[in-house]
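Data availability (excerpt). The following record was deposited with the supplementary files.
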Amino acid sequence: MIEYTSNAKDGARWLGRAERQIPYATSLALNRTAAAIQKAITELMPQVFDRPTPYTLRGNVDVDIVVGLEGGRVQRIEAIRADRNDGAMRDMMCLTIGLMRGIQPEYVSIEDALKDGTHLWSGAAQKPLKKAFYFDTFTAKLTPLSLVVE
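Predicted structure:
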């Protein structure tokens, strides 16, 4: 709980500083969510894959995330990965699942998000694919490797 007592001028200044922190806090929350999901998926990989390579299991997240705000609300999230390899695809899949679960946590199970994410990325093999997801749109692109949620 945040408790703050002051005059109106100091209160307005405090709110202004807090508002400037929203993009940073959003980015930090998304990165931490993606890292947690990646860790969980990496732990489950030996159960899913027959013989995963050490490179596949290592899991280094290196994704640039740009958050677009309008009126204090998140309007657009763009995740971009410079390289395109098995590790990069795994990272983007983890981020996709995390965003899908984050958008509708009470309606989307991990299995549903995994199925929808797999469909999204396999469909993006030939050209960028847009997929409606509740009230948002996910766009996956392989060149450059990117995911946009609007």
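Summary of structural features: DSSP finds five helices and five strands in the chain.
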